[in-house]
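User: Study the shape:
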Amino acid sequence: MKAVAHHLESLNVFRGITIAAMILVNNPGDWTAVFPPLMHEYWTGWTFADLLFPWFIFIMGFAMPFAFARRHEQGHRLPHLYRRIVRRVALLIAIGLILNAVSAWPAVFPLRYPGVLQRIALSYLIAALIVLHFEVTGWVVAVALLLLGHWALLTLVPFGGHPPGTLTPEHNLAGYVDAFVFGRHSLSRPIDPEGLVGVLPSAATAVVGALAGRLVRQAHSETARLGNLVIAGAGTFVAGEVWSHLLPVSKPLWTGSYVLVVTGLAMIVFAVTYEVVDRWQVRAWARPFIWLGVNPLAIYVFSDIVGHLLQNVEIRRGNGHTTPMAWLFWGVLEPAFRPWMTEWPSLAFAVAYVAVWTAIAGVLYRRRVRIQV
């Protein structure tokens, strides 16, 4: 069995599943009626919703060894790769700022500077440079330095009159730095989840993904790939759980224990996906996720823009005004589910919204449209 060269269909499937789940979590019909696993934990702990964003960053890192090897074989030198990286980072940040403006419309100013795409961009920049310039041992060292450096900042550095290690929602170094740098241009409840300090561990998340990708790419048998992923995933997850007794799992802070827990689970879930899709060749069920996985960021961006427009744009309804979202949910969907509990119509709206964007992704896939973001 040859080592994997440049492509795994299971990676597209896993990416598509993650994007579908991100859209699902971000677009309930009623934010006051959401099943707990689809809501983020406020401060510590994790739910299903807390896995998705880091999984996407993990997948981004996972693809790097494959993508850079392909570029190398095509004769691309470092200056060319640098230009591609810089262009992608700039594009992601620009689109992220546009998304922030759309989500806040019409109260755009002060515009929030951090965001999901901005976090992806900076994580990609740091991880790509590490993967390009170091061997695997250097990747491992980089993960350790990023996670331990982040831990040291949070627990050993005093700030704003507070002692080192203050990690409450109201008082923590990450929130202090964002308030100092961005002022009103960031979220503050409890802190901006895509703030500056968290870039360090999110970059580590991508590098862990690159390590997993290298593990898969270099293995010379399907059994070895599966076994290596499961063992590495289980070990990483356990390490995260152990570390969580000293440094709690927290998505808002993106703590090192959180990184290890979510990337450990990502490896295990991808191992299952690889076994089913690439080894057993059972793919009929996965076709919609392949569609989403081919244009993941484009689908995410457009779904986010449309989702905010549905909530923010006013339309005339009878003698007053409403939003398309309110009309669709409260006027059409919610009455059809009575007297069921309120979480079900809210979930049904989110599932329908995912289905719409999956269909759009399918059209793009069949027409061979690839939108690079």
Residues 157 and 164 are 5 Å apart (CA to CA). The radius of gyration is 21 Å. The chain has two domains: 18-39+286-373, 43-281. Residues 78-104 form the longest helix (27 residues).
